């Protein structure tokens, strides 16, 4: 009984750790996707600005 209870505690700790790691991984992936998306948009904006030097989005903002 005591061994089982101890094992259960360890198992719970492991489960919480796995959940935490999974959440961290998902957050990391989301961050990477968001950053890459932002960079892509910035690149598109940069190309647009280079094509039309008259319209500056930075001056408007």
Shape descriptor:
rod-shaped
Our estimate of the beta-strand percent is under 5%
How far from one another are the termini? 67 Å
Q: Compute the average pLDDT.
A: 79
Radius of gyration: 24 Å
Secondary-structure class: mainly alpha
Count of DSSP H/I helices: 2
- What is the count of distinct domains? 1
Keywords: Membrane, Transmembrane, Transmembrane helix
Transmembrane segments: 12-37
Characteristic key phrases:
2 helices, rod-shaped, mainly alpha, 61 residues
Helix and strand topology:
Layout lengths: L1 H50 L5 H4 L1
Keywords: Membrane, Transmembrane, Transmembrane helix
Overall description:
By secondary structure, the protein is mostly helical. The chain has one domain. Helices cover 89% and strands 0% of the residues. The longest helix is centred in the middle third of the chain and has 50 residues, at 2-51. The radius of gyration is 24 Å and the shape is rod-shaped. It starts with a helix and ends with a helix. The relative contact order is 0.06.
Quick summary of this structure?
This protein has 2 helices and no strands.
């Amino acid at each position: 009984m005591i061994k089982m209870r101890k094992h259960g505690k360890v198992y719970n700790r492991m489960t919480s750790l796995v959940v935490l790691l999974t959440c961290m991984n998902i957050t990391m992936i989301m961050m990477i996707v968001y950053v890459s998306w932002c960079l892509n948009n910035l690149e598109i904006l940069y190309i647009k600005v280079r094509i039309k030097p008259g319209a500056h989005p930075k001056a408007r903002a």
